[in-house]
Amino acid sequence: MERIRIAVLVSGGGTNLQALLDAEAAGTLKSGKISAVISDRPGAYALERARKAGVPAWEISRKACGGREAFEARLAEVLRESGAEIIVLAGFLSILSADFTRDWDHRMLNIHPSLIPSFCGEGFYGLKVHEAALARGVKLTGATVHFVNEIPDGGEIIAQQAVEVCPEDTPETLQRRVMEQAEWILLPRAAEEVCRKRLEERNA
Ligand code: GRF
């Protein structure tokens, strides 16, 4: 069966990558195939997850590339080499240029750990998102999968899942619940939906 090749871009622990790998193994992600994992941070544990799953992985260090232009040129080269048609940003921390994102219009997804438009945009990533949600005193937060455009966390929303905030929550306990109850469920579903639609359009 034809499947859309997916490149997953990572920077850290890779729990969202793991959710995608597990979904592919379980057959719930069946219209797409994770064909490459690319980290902008050397030694990210996500690379170990890729290795264990037998998925080709690359490290592209911005520092080693000597700036964003060279970094994006190398990234584009690896993506071409991998044959990827869809990019999934899974805990990826580098901001990509407008030119780069335009080349992947409606073909690049991102998972953000809040209900956009709350707690998103410049400077909102990782634990900072949950610290802001707790500081504001929201009773519900969650996660959002969206297409990526030139505005950080500004692209068209694909899916959202709400998660309850508990009175005794710390940023860490809230992050964990948002991952378990929202991110790790939403991202594989959204990847499957985008890949399935792409296959349908191609075979229409
Ligand atoms: C997490 O904060 C997640 O919400 C966000 O990126 C961070 C790391 O995720 N998407 P991962 O474990 O590397 O997938």
Keywords:
single chain; alpha/beta; 7 helices; 21% strand; binds 5-O-phosphono-beta-D-ribofuranosylamine
Write structural notes for this entry:
This protein has helices at residues 15-26, 45-53, 62-65, 68-82, 98-103, 127-136, 171-203; strands at 4-10, 32-39, 57-59, 86-89, 108-112, 140-147, 157-164. By secondary structure, the chain is of the alpha/beta class. The chain has a 7-stranded mixed sheet, sandwiched between helices. Strand 1, helix 1 (15-26) and strand 2 form a beta-alpha-beta unit. The chain is globular, with a radius of gyration of 16 Å. The model has no long low-confidence stretch (mean pLDDT 97). The chain binds 5-O-phosphono-beta-D-ribofuranosylamine (GRF).
Fraction in beta strands: 15-25%
Q: How many alpha or pi helices?
A: 7
Low-confidence region ranges: none
Order of helices and strands: EHEHEHHEHEHEEH
Average pLDDT reading: 97
Oligomer: single chain
Give the proportion of residues in helices.
40-55%
Largest sheet: 7 strands, mixed
By secondary-structure content and strand pairing, the structural class works out as alpha/beta
- Biggest sheet: strand arrangement: 3-2-1-4-5-6-7
| Total number of beta strands | 7
Globular, elongated, flat, extended or rod-shaped: what is the shape?
Answer: globular
Terminal residue distance: 16 Å
Small molecules bound: 5-O-phosphono-beta-D-ribofuranosylamine
Query: Radius of gyration, rounded?
Result: 16 Å
